[in-house]
């Protein structure tokens, strides 16, 4: 209704979030960490699907972003940021374990020598992949989460699909550009044309997957919101 000065007062929607006391956050965090570790291993292999150049982790990585969207929407930016940092701390730990496994002295028979070479070939490039993934995911996911939460502050519980899609475009672009710039040489991409193919395909693919899964993400978000006892109580 009109204020005493004659101007109308518009109430800004208050964003609602949940605390992390229930088991749902822990389950999603565990899945995100496992997906990220597996993605880093798969990303060390270059994959050629006809004219399309990508890496072996292409089918896994979008899952981590979808989980990040769910956590940002339900628990807020600070909690999502903790999940990002925790996932990468575990990924770095896994990379350290790979290095220890590689440098440990093995047997000298032909089978063990071949096995050592295979392990080095499969896990050896992973630390550099982790570095690229760390910088890319940290920047991309943080921007993705921040934009989603800022949009929620404007719209409240409305327009979830717009928050998911809008934040994903920016987050995936930053993530893909940083990661591909570091990972391209590791998987054998050296010329600019192939790099452009690799980066563009990665961005389009990951963004398209997130867009296709928006209905599923919306359902998951709604399901968790209804089962989180503290949803609507906690602050961002």
From TrEMBL:
This is Probable queuosine precursor transporter. Keywords: Cell membrane, Membrane, Transmembrane, Transmembrane helix, Transport. It is a multi-pass membrane protein. The chain crosses the membrane at residues 21-41, 88-107, 127-149, 169-189, 195-221. HAMAP family: Q_prec_transport (MF_02088). Its main location: membrane. Signal peptide: none annotated.
